Amino acid sequence: GALEGLRQDAYEVQRLFVVVQVAGELQGKNDELERVLDDLQNAQDQIITQGKLAALGELTAGVAHEIRNPLNFVNNFSEASGELLEELNEILDEVAEDIDDEQMGYIQEVTGDIAGNMVRIKSHGERANRIVHGMLAMGRESTELQQTDLNALIEEYTQLAYHSGRATDPDMNLEIKADFDPEVPPIQAVSQDLGRVFLNLVTNSWHATEDKRDALREQDPEAAKTYLPGLFTSTRLLGEDIEIRFRDNGTGMPQDVVDKIFNPFFTTKATSRGTGLGLSLVMDIIRSHGGTIEVETEPGEFTEFIIRLPKHNPASGVPATST
Predict the structure, then answer these.
(1) How far is residue 246's CA from residue 48's CA, in Å, rounded to a whole number?
(2) C-beta neighbour count of 159 within 10 angstroms
(3) What's the predicted TM-score (pTM) here?
(4) E-strand spans in the chain?
(5) Which among 83, 80, 107 has a CA at the least distance from the CA of 95?
(6) Tens digit of pLDDT for each residue in 114-169?
(7) Which end of the chain has a smaller Cβ tally under 10 Å, C or N?
(8) Burial readout 263-293 (b: 16 or more C-beta within 10 A, e: otherwise)
(9) What value, to the nearest 5°, has the Cα angle with vertex 118 and ends 116 and 122?
């Protein structure tokens, strides 16, 4: 009887062990299922955001078209006004002897101010025109390879990202410095796609420096006063490759984030701020041009993206043109 009781106890213990083991496995599966559901919910949110962004992109292109016409008038009339002012100055020179010196001095001062204003209007009008051009280029889908000046393209899309940021956040503060190698030749590339890469990286840098500034304000107000958000871009011709670097002094990233940043839908940002598709698409675009992208970072200090593109795009079959 005692032996039978021991057997029963052993059986119960074994059965309980199996139950506990199965329960543990079920809990693990349940946790995994919850993670999958969270991922699906996140993906759904991102897809909805993508749809909104697509609609916003169409709206932006329409607005840019509407802005371009009056902007052309502003640029053309500022140029014409400058020419008229030159003619006026020539006439004034001819009749200068008949005009009182004090009055002539005042007239020259006023015409000088007007000339300066015309130069500023023309300069800002041309800058606005470049921004509109960039907005329209972003809205066009193109897969055609064309001769692309990388230095000019990086400058254009860096400015586009900066002004887009200022439009949404007037307090945005990002000091941008560039060091472009004049020896970098034009390459065969899909300019709009590479533009999206540069736009994405600059936007990420802006967000990273903004997050660091906000964190410093909470943790170390004195350090926040001296912190200057910055982005440094550079190009270098290295043999058969062109190296492009984007380095910011923002929050940096821990290794577990670095391991995932090129995965589709991975993001550390709120849905309203990022789709989680940015760096995944960046990698796809760089690879489609025969290049590579990697990241170096230190949490709390910096993040640097390093892109390498071949001078000769394997997809084009056309060598790069020397400068």
Answers:
(1) 30
(2) 16
(3) 0.60
(4) 146-148, 175-179, 187-189, 230-238, 241-248, 292-298, 302-310
(5) 107
(6) 888 888 888 888 877 777 776 676 655 566 788 999 999 999 899 888 887 877 77
(7) N
(8) eeebbeeeeeebbbbbbbbbbebbeebbbeb
(9) 120
CA end-to-end span of the chain: 99
Residue-wise pLDDT tens digits, 282-323: 999 999 899 999 999 999 999 999 999 998 866 554 444 443
User: Which DSSP string do the residues of 3-65 spell out, in sequence order?
Assistant: HHHHHHHHHHHHHHHHHHHHHHHHHHHHHHHHHHHHHHHHHHHHHHHHHHHHHHHHHHHHHHH
DSSP string, 213-244: HHHHHHH-HHHHHH---EEEEEEEEETTEEEE
**Pairing status of strand 187-189 against strand 241-248:** unpaired
Identify the residue whose tokens are 């400015």. Answer: 159
In the chain, what are the domains? Answer: 2-134 (no CATH), 145-310 (3.30.565.10)
What are the φ and ψ backbone dihedral angles of 140, each rounded to 5 degrees?
-90, 135
List residues bridging with 56 in a β-sheet: none
Closest residue by Cα to residue 39 from 212, 297, 306, 276? 276
The token duo for 47 is: 């897809």
- Give the torsion sign (CA, 285, 288, 291, 292): positive
Segment 63-103, tens digit of pLDDT: 777 777 788 888 888 888 888 888 888 888 888 888 888 88
- The C-alpha atoms of residue 182 and residue 1 are separated, in whole angstroms, by 96
